[in-house]
Amino acid sequence: MATLIGTDTYRFGHVVKHEYEPALAYCRDVVTANESGAKTYAIGTVLGKVTATGKYKICEASAADGSQNAAAVVIEDKAVAASTDTSVLVLSRGPALVSKSALVLGASVDTQPEFDAVYASLKALGILAVDTI
């Protein structure tokens, strides 16, 4: 879950440190998310893409459907109803920089090799996860 700052969750500026041509939305897409149970995506939630359906869900290291590979970073707070296709605004390509500490990962992403795999998947998309001050 997103780290809280006071009583507030992360905002866009806490997560996205740089993106190429934000005025043109070059790095952004609207994707279809579908979760088996109701979820609330906070800004910074990392999504994976299910190979069979092309739909997105929270990236989990324990998944075996394609969603174990990071494919996008959510850039809006969004409620996703159970088993319902929901449009979500994401960073899907770079060049872009995001703060590692502001990324929201699935519960099964809990070891350094799993974190590194998420960062590598994002890097392959041109989205660099960086340490920020």
Question: Care to describe what's here?
Answer:
- The structure is a single chain.
- The protein is α+β, with helices and mostly antiparallel strands.
- 13% of the residues lie in helices and 32% in strands.
- The protein is globular and about 35 Å long.
Question: Could you give the order of strands across the largest sheet?
Answer: 2-8-6-4-5
Distance between the termini: 21 Å
Query: Whole-number average pLDDT?
Result: 91
Largest sheet: 5 strands, antiparallel
Low-confidence stretches: 1-7
Number of helices: 2
Helicity, as a percent range: 10-25%
Q: In one word, what is the shape? A: globular
Using the CA coordinates, give the radius of gyration: 14 Å
- Which class of secondary structure composition applies to the elements? alpha+beta
Percent of residues in beta strands? Answer: 25-35%
Q: Which series of helices and strands comes N to C?
A: HEEEEEEEEEHE
Number of strands: 10
Brief digest:
This protein is α+β, with helices and mostly antiparallel strands and 133 residues long.
Give the SSE layout.
Layout: H1 12-15, E1 16-19, E2 28-33, E3 39-41, E4 46-49, E5 56-58, E6 70-74, E7 78-80, E8 86-91, E9 96-99, H2 112-124, E10 127-130
Question: Which key features would you list for this structure?
Answer:
133 residues, alpha+beta, 2 helices, 10 strands, disordered N terminus
